[in-house]
Write a structure and sequence with these properties.
- The structure is a single chain.
- This protein has about 350 residues and is α+β, with helices and mostly antiparallel strands.
- Strands 4, 6, 7, 9, 10 and 11 form a six-stranded mixed beta sheet that branches.
- Strand 1, helix 2 and strand 2 form a beta-alpha-beta unit.
- It is built from seven helices and 19 strands.
- The chain has four domains: about 80 residues, no CATH class; about 45 residues, no CATH class; about 90 residues, Immunoglobulins (Immunoglobulin-like); about 90 residues, Immunoglobulin-like, CATH 2.60.40.
């Protein structure tokens, strides 16, 4: 009944109606919540001896409903086998004493085990074993093989081959995992390289080192960490954050003409090629503008790094033509060298 709050609602409604009741129940170790509720509402609670109540049961079949009827009958007839119940303060003291007793038992057991370890090594120090000198002795004792395989702590660091780098540049992250004293040896296993919470990749330790290379980091700062997964002999560890800064890659723009010199009124097609400058990589995207001196002739969108713009409006004479790449989120803009277009 208490799981859905039915019992609590029932007694609170009685309190609101001004009804005073005496409640009887069998002793149990799982009804503290009910005792606290009745105490809060100011209702009298009698705890009955289960064995005594059982002797007064007429029917052999036990059900909650029959038990409730029996206890109500005993309360009405003033035959309810009430037992003494300690006060809440008294219970708290008893609980503290019980827990203290258990702690003393645990302490005694641990001390006995330590004495046994020392005796197996030929030392009978008794109380002296628990002095500073005895503790030093215990730390020097060699444990049995099944107990001595305690994992050593590890330490992980991570460095970058290029920092800052540019977009599209291949960056190699190297993680170094070492044992922390008093542990020794060379850790084995795998290391996860992470960018924030995202796993970039995994490397296998060799000689305490693991590497991972990538060229897909976006422009901006990246929080790189190396997480050692541990092994049978070494605990896990995580490096401090390495901030890898990726800048925009440089670009180079080239302008060519389909017909130079050309004749007045003849359509000329200008081809604009934009490439990423090493160590960056990738194919630039975005728009380019063809200029005649300071005057824009036209704009086109790059496709596979190329764009074309045609015009037949150039006047007679020499024209200083340039192509201007506007750049994008990954690439810096660039301007071609001047192409002198002659129109006869």
């Amino acid at each position: 009944m208490h799981s859905d709050g039915e019992a609590e609602r029932f007694y609170r409604e009685l309190k609101e109606r001004g009804v005073s009741v005496r409640v009887g129940m069998e002793a149990t170790g799982h009804a503290r919540w009910f005792e606290r509720l009745l105490a809060e509402l100011g209702f009298e609670l009698w705890i009955g001896d289960p064995a005594e109540i059982k002797t007064k049961r007429v029917q052999k079949q036990k059900t909650d409903r029959e038990d409730a009827r029996l206890m109500l009958k005993l309360l009405r007839e003033n035959r309810f086998p009430k037992i003494w119940v300690p006060s809440p303060d008294n219970r708290d003291v008893r609980q503290l004493l019980w827990h203290r007793h258990r702690l003393v038992q645990m302490r005694t057991w641990i001390m006995n085990q330590l004495q046994a370890v020392a005796m197996n090594e030929g030392y009978r120090w008794k109380k002296k074993l628990f002095s500073a000198q005895g503790r030093a002795l215990l730390e020097k004792l060699s444990l049995a093989p099944w107990a001595s395989r305690r994992k050593a702590s590890s330490s992980t660091t991570v460095v970058s081959s290029h920092n800052p780098s540019v977009f599209g540049q291949s960056v190699t992250f190297t993680a170094t995992v070492a044992a922390v004293a008093p542990g020794s040896g060379t850790p084995t296993g795998t290391v996860k390289f992470k960018n924030g919470a995202t796993v970039l990749g995994t490397g296998t330790l060799g000689g305490g080192k693991a590497t991972f290379s990538t060229s897909v980091l976006a422009v901006g700062p990246h929080s790189i960490t190396a997480v050692y997964g541990g092994s049978a002999n070494y605990n896990t560890s995580t490096s401090t954050v390495l901030t890898e800064t990726v800048n925009k890659a440089a670009s180079s723009t080239k302008l060519t003409s389909s017909l130079n010199p050309s004749t007045l009124g003849k359509s000329v097609t200008f081809t604009i090629t934009v490439v990423t400058v090493a160590p960056g990589s990738g194919t630039p995207t975005g728009t380019v503008t063809l200029k005649n001196g300071a005057t824009a002739v036209g704009t086109a969108t790059l496709a596979s790094g190329k764009a074309t713009i045609s015009t037949s409006a150039l006047t007679h004479g020499a024209h200083s033509m340039t192509a201007v790449y506007s750049g994008n989120v990954d690439e810096l803009g660039s301007t071609s060298t001047i192409l002198t277009q002659t129109v006869n």
